[in-house]
Specification:
Length: 372
Amino acid sequence: MTLPPQEAATDPAASTGPAPGQRVAGPTVTPEAVDTTTVSAGPTAVSVVMPVRNESRHLEAAVRRVLDQDCPGPLEVIIAVGPSQDDTREIAERLATADERVRLVDNPTGRTPAGLNRAITASRHGIIVRVDGHGELGDGYIATAVETLARTGAANVGGIMDAQGRTPFEQAVAVAYTSRLGLGGSTFHLRTSPEGPADTVFLGSFRKSALEAVGGYDETLHRAQDWELNYRLRQAGELVWFTPAMRVTYRPRSTYRALARQFYDTGKWRREVVRRHPDTLNARYLAPPLAVLGVLVGLAAGGHGSYHKVGWMKLGWLAPIGYLVGVVVGAAALRRELPWQVRIRLPLVFVIMHMCWGLGFLAGLGDDRPAH
């Protein structure tokens, strides 16, 4: 099976592709135009794929960290550029002009899985390393990925999502990401997680042949597509492997509103993954929606009891109060040296993560559900 067919790029200057070994005249090409007969036969040649949209704040740093890697073989970076409201495209074009290892492909939909598939289609090498526009690879990341793929025989390997913020709010979000109270202790969020087989990993470094065998990323999943891809790899008998030796610095959302939107959307799309693959449902995914239901039912019962003077219904207030107390105590009990400006923001960050993810999961996609 091959990756899903791609639509033609909208850039008229990109209607023809480079001959083997030729520098692209103008930095944007269509995936179909790339001559993939130049694929390296060596086991250490790497294609880095980056889907980007509205990433002007972090894109240059992310690409520089890739280009600075000590790679064991040939390296190329393929940036799939989506429609942006900032100067992401201009930055990407400048990077492609400055370094012949960087090439661009158009991603007209702007959706992450579509951009990934277009970049993979345009890639020339047998190892695919996914990088996001707001992530920065740790030292030795690609070399470790290549070594781990060879050592384990895995189809996909990945490491730690090392959330790091710059502002007090971003730092609070980063702490919540790496806390069991925040994201429930996912393996790739915790630095203490041991190496071994995993259900999923952050981003991922793949054998291209394994990606092609399962059809690449599902473009009908606007979020959670990485988890669903790893599920299909495992169903196909492939191994997904986690190693803490691989580390990516992740830049969290910078506002409360952006964080709320991120977690609400993630909850909706996780519900869609569960609908398609019911056997993936577990207690960790049910915790946020159950918390939302508990708080809402408690508020309704407590409010009704107080207004109508029904004594036993006033006990409903215990649910939201108990939840808030638990969040505040949990945030205060974190055994980390944190500035007060960060710690004071933690309870609200936790509440946004729990409630928005849970509301999104309960709401689901409804009539917006894509054809599958």
